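Regression test case RT-17, inverse folding.

Input:
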């Protein structure tokens, strides 16, 4: 963790499997774009489908692919196959990799989604930029709270600014750390 007054960052080695969404939507290589769009819109909507050819993941088709490569060209989704518009080769990441590894891979390859593969090469999940941002934001918010708590604990013990005596129960008064005896004197 690095800390300065303007920004709190947490460097962590969270495994990507901890934030992945399991059972990503898949579609056959020969399916139409219309079928893919229906699948993306079905219960638990998602913005993508992993394209499988003979059971092997070979690409990904996204809402953006459909919009830019089919709709914008005034093509009929029922006449275009996902194999014609999918992004391939499929860029994946293993379950043992970290969220940080996933973010670097996304940046390097300019992709917003990474299928997660197990040690047999089978897609078992997917992680998106949104997933990474959500976990990073949550961790940074927690770190902010911990820094506040830590600062409060730092003020509770030390040397009294007025009498110079050590105390485990200092209070901050107008920017000075004051022991209970000096606080009592102030009340008299």
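Golden output:
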């Amino acid at each position: 963790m690095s800390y300065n007054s303007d920004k709190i960052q947490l460097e962590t080695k969270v495994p990507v499997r901890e934030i992945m969404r399991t059972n990503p939507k898949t579609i056959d290589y020969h399916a139409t774009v219309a079928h893919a769009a229906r699948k993306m819109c079905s219960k638990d909507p998602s913005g993508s489908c992993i394209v499988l050819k003979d059971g092997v993941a070979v690409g990904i088709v996204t809402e953006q692919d459909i919009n830019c490569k089919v709709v914008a060209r005034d093509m009929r989704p029922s006449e275009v196959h996902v194999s014609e518009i999918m992004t391939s080769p499929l860029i994946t990441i293993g379950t043992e990799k970290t969220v940080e590894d996933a973010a670097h891979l996304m940046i390097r390859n300019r992709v917003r989604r990474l299928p997660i593969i197990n040690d047999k090469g089978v897609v078992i999940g997917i992680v998106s930029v949104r997933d990474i941002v959500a976990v990073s934001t949550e961790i940074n918010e927690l770190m902010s709270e911990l820094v506040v708590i830590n600062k409060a604990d730092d003020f509770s013990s030390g040397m009294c600014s007025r009498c110079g005596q050590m105390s485990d129960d200092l209070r901050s008064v107008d920017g000075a750390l004051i022991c209970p005896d000096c606080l009592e004197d102030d009340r008299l």
